[in-house]
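re: ur question from yesterday

yeah so i grabbed the chain u mentioned. its 207 aa long if i counted rite. heres the sequnce exactly as i have it in my notes:
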Amino acid sequence: MSPDQEPSPAAGRPDRPARDDRPLRAHARRNREKLIAAARAAFTAADDTVPLDGIAREAGVGIGTLYRHFPTREALVEAVYSAELDSVTAGVAALLDELPPDQALRAWMERHAAFIATKRSMLNTLRSGWASGRLATPATRERITDAIGVILAAGARAGSLRADVAPDDVTAMLLGVFLSTADDDDPERTDRLLDLVVDALRPRGSS
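ran it thru and got these structure tokens back, copy pasting raw so excuse formatting
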């Protein structure tokens, strides 16, 4: 072949890179995220026994797509739980960028309360999966306590939160709030109790 001739498509085919399938992966990732969002909404509104075909329909995908991502109901429940826990623990930095530490703590508590509500709707499946070993036991309390520790440290530096409180003690206080209001008919009681927790964490004598 002369230098002026171009190789045929077949001649160069063995050296061509494989077809880029990144758009397909991105599409699959979006489907997975939509399924998790739809499942979270369904579980929070009812519980985790809702029909899976309804979740697929709300996500705008077929039931086969749901099962490709989540072969069992437990797998879907675990994915929702993990996504919620990630959202709660990873959101601290953004809140501290936007708000003073004491206000960031109160806003974070709201997000934590929403996580608890979602978790409560999935608790039977989660407990069964954790007990049997089919689901990995997450380090939930440790991660929540670490997130609280970050906010308390920022508040101590700013002077808006006490420096003498252990993060795990705050975790225990929040668990008490959420357990005591689990079956409460007064939706505003949780807000009042969380306000009291934040007030207790402000330095003595501060307004």
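noticed a couple things. The chain has two domains: 22-71, 74-207. also Residues 22-71 form a domain with the Arc Repressor Mutant, subunit A fold (CATH 1.10.10).
anyway ttyl
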